[in-house]
Design a protein that fits this description.
This protein is α/β, with parallel strands linked by helices. The chain is built from 7 helices and 8 strands; from the N terminus they run βαβαβαβββαβαβαα.
Length: about 200
């Protein structure tokens, strides 16, 4: 039992989904079973952080990746044979940055950094073929995603358990209400969650 939450590009542990998951795990008394690292903007350093977080959790934790974090989670799931839940994941993000090189800013910390060709090369190094992982890899998409075309993920992950909801957005509306499903994937059953009112998340 354990969860590694992987945030997206220019995001942080302060993102809405990360905070909702952290709050739920705290209410369950399972704070130590959750890792939400503040990832470096460079993929190689981010992956080193994620590998360290996996070592801390031990066992076979559930990977939960949002956006670019979904790309990282897909790579880690394949490398380590781990279950994963991907939320509006980026597919082959190294092919999406044409025209976006240059100064970036983290939406939460305010940190500015330079997106370079080395970032793109490092992302390409993490590319994996379309997984045929069945239920081991769950993909939650919303068709109203304004940042990524959900159809790319729907096609790429067709060998996995894909759930597409109409509407929504890139942040994934209604994530809090789906936390019991996420927790169940991590081996935290409904009887453990009875005392929590997820409708307020």
């Amino acid at each position: 039992m354990g969860i590694l939450y992987i945030h997206g590009l220019n995001s942080s542990p302060l993102s809405h989904k990360a905070q909702q998951l952290s709050q739920a795990m705290a209410l369950l008394g399972l704070e130590t079973q959750l890792q939400v690292p503040a990832l470096h903007h460079h993929p190689r350093q981010a992956m080193a952080q994620l590998e360290a977080a996996l070592d801390t959790l031990g066992g076979k934790p559930l990977l939960v990746g949002s956006s670019l974090g979904g790309y990282y989670a897909t790579h880690l799931a394949q490398r380590h044979g781990l279950p994963a839940l991907l939320i509006n994941p980026a597919v082959n993000p190294h092919r999406l940055f044409d025209g976006y090189l240059g100064t970036q800013q983290n939406l939460y910390s305010g940190e500015t950094w330079e997106l370079t060709l080395d970032h793109i090369t490092a992302l390409a190094e993490l590319e994996v073929p379309p997984p045929a992982a069945g239920e081991q890899l769950q993909v939650w998409l919303q068709s109203g995603d304004e940042t990524l075309d959900y159809r790319r993920a729907e096609q790429f992950y067709q060998g996995c358990a894909v759930d597409v909801q109409p509407g929504g957005d890139h942040g994934y509306q209604g994530f809090g209400q789906r936390l019991p499903e996420l927790l169940a994937l991590a081996g935290i059953g409904p009887e453990r969650c009875k005392a929590i009112d997820f409708s307020v998340f």
